Amino acid sequence: MEISRRSLLGTAALGTAAATLPVTRARAQGKPVIKIGVLNDSSGPYRDTGGKTSFICTQQAVEEFKSHLNGYDVEVIYGDHQNKPDVGAGLARQWYDRDGVDMILDVPTSSVALAVAGVAKEKNKVHINIGAATADLTGKACAPCIVHWSYDTYMLAKSTGGATVKAGGDTWYFITADYVFGQQLQRDTSAFVTKTGGKVLGSSAYPFPATTDFSSFLLQAQASGAKVLGLANAGGDTVNSIKQAKEFGLTMDIAALLMFITDVNALGLETAQGLHLTESFYWDMNEGTRAFTNRVKPKTPDNWPNMIHAGCYASTLHFMKAINKIGPAAAKAAGSNIVDAMKSIPTEDDAFGKGRIREDGMAMFPSYLFQVKKPSESKGKWDYYKTIQTTPAEEAWRPLNEGGCYFIKS
After folding, report:
1. Which of 72-104 are b and which e, b meaning 16 or more Cβ less than 10 Å from the residue's Cβ?
2. What distance in Å separates the CA atoms of residue 229 and residue 227, rounded to the nearest whole number?
3. Which of 281, 288, 286 lies closest to 309, judged by CA?
4. For the packed helices 110-123 and 180-195, what is the interaxial angle rounded to 10 degrees?
5. Fewer Cβ close by (within 10 Å): the C or N end of the chain?
6. According to the model, what pLDDT value does residue 127 have?
7. Could you tell me the strand order of the sheet in which 276-279 lies?
8. Residues with Cβ < 8 Å from 409, sequence gap 6 or more?
């Protein structure tokens, strides 16, 4: 069975929401087809943290697993939600209803993710979220057909926020993307700051994705007298915030609460050195992470995988293992059938090693607090991180009984 690549026929009803990237197919005549839709930001501030590389890593999983497909074939398509909840929900509805998509993957931007999750829940179709941070996906917005992989606001706040306070950064000022992701990340980090004896002295919210000039917010942060600037944003916004902070000579410590190795690459080590950040994947962690990266990077040489990209790869592998277990007929009948099977099988792959999917849909892996290396410490391309702290899987995530997921019985 071979993978062929064809041009994706655009979903004209949604105009630019459709991508023109190729479709991955693993198909033989007469077999049922399981269809995966990778949905993210391919043109805005999150295009490097997710974007085309998420699609490539999903393709990689299908290519590696194609010889193990048990009675079905797989297609992968790609779309751009433009960071707009209405576009994301509309494309999700079209994919599920008209185009036969069985699972929607990635979906950064928490407001879009919650909209897509609502459609998935309504139709009992699988949504595996990788790119959005909102912890509500395994809390009040949970569903038996939803899985959340790689990170969330609770994990980020506990790892980066908690460690910063312990290191003496006990007064904070936040610059926050004014939508559900930024709001929740500020809320969760503030809780850890105050719990460990720190104080929040103020915050500035900015409209997302309309802002690229953070100068007025940085001046307000400096004037607050806080020791730490907490950046409750991501992607290009984080990169621009840090660049402008350096240009202004900001004397505060910067806590990049959601930052990726792709952002560090955009900043360069001269600017990014010394920053602390949290990811659940780093390409140079071990033999498995290096092997996965070496298989992928020829296809995306200028954008090596971060924890979103690795999550797309790993979750797609686990999704196909679950379908092997229950069969394509049961998989087509209900998304919850697939997710139940995903929860029943331990996860294992090169990107994350061994783990599990918790009852509420949270993928359970350790989180890692990294410090960005100095230029003199880096030995080569993308050699950017030093591991400062590891939080075990069972400690990294919000306790199961605190999330408020409706089908979890405490």
Report:
1. bbbbbbbbbbbbbbebbbbbbbbbbeeeebbbb
2. 7
3. 281
4. 110
5. C
6. 98
7. 199-206, 171-177, 228-232, 253-256, 276-279, 367-372, 385-391
8. none
Cα distance between residue 72 and residue 35, in whole Å: 10
Each residue of 227-284: pLDDT tens digit?
999 999 999 999 999 999 999 999 999 999 999 999 999 999 999 999 999 999 999 9
Domains of the chain by start residue, with CATH: 3-151+285-365 (3.40.50.2300), 154-284+366-395 (3.40.50.2300)
Taking 50 as the pLDDT cut, the residues of the chain under it are 1-20
How far is residue 81's CA from residue 275's CA, in Å, rounded to a whole number? 30
* Cα gap 166→188, rounded to integer Å: 16
CA 190 – CA 192 distance, rounded (Å): 5
Q: Which pLDDT score, from 0 to 100, does residue 134 have?
A: 96
User: Helix and strand tally (H, E) in the chain?
Assistant: 15, 17
**230 phi and psi angles, rounded to 5 deg:** -95, 120
Alpha helix positions (H), 72-143:
85-97, 110-123
DSSP 28-55: -TT--EEEEEEEE-SSSTTTTTSHHHHH
Closest CA to 149 of 104, 197, 208: 104
Strands of the sheet containing 353-357, edge to edge, are: 347-349, 353-357, 363-364
Please provide the DSSP assignment of 252-284 as one string: SEEEESS--HHHHHHH-HHHHTT-EEEES--TT
pTM of the model: 0.91
Produce one character per residue of 131-148: b if its CB has 16 or more CB atoms within 10 Å, e if not. bbbbbbbbbebbbbbbbb
Residue the block writes with tokens 């000022």 = 173
Which tokens in the block code for residue 207?
């409209």
Question: In sequence order, what DSSP letters do the residues of 360-377 get, joined into one string?
Answer: TSBEE--EEEEEEPPGGG
Retrieve residue 140's tokens: 């009040």
Picking from 160, 405, 147, the residue whose alpha carbon sits closest to that of residue 259 is: 160
Place of tokens 């050699």: 383
